[in-house]
Hints:
By secondary structure, the chain is α+β, with helices and mostly antiparallel strands. It is built from four helices and four strands, in the order βββαβααα. It has a four-stranded mixed β-sheet. Strand 2 and strand 3 (31-36) form a beta hairpin. The longest helix is centred in the middle third of the chain and has 25 residues, at 67-91. The N and C termini lie far apart (66 Å).
Amino acid sequence: MKLIGTLLQTKGSFGTKGFNDVLVFCPFGLVLLFEFKREGEKPRKLQTYRHRKLAKLGHKSHVVFTAEEATKIVRREIRAKALSEAVHRIRVEPSERRFFASSRPRKNGNSSVRVPGSEAARAR
């Protein structure tokens, strides 16, 4: 499995029983866990236990039968994460950015931040 921008780690280096066969470190801080099985096999009890523990920590273990299947999942997950990151950047509207106080004064010399609704509070 060779994909641009990913780092692949196989089981040989961490070798704990029941742990996933392959870890894939992807862009955007995404880590994918794969368990490779032969056609028709299921994960053992210890593997299922570890998958549940990892799921509680927010990681999903993918059980796959071929490298092509794993590659498709990696591409799909990277695409989804990239889209999520892009949407997150769009949601921070330029109008919302003015609420964060700057350390330098504005052009008019005023370094205060205007908060909507504050004029009504001052009028009381």
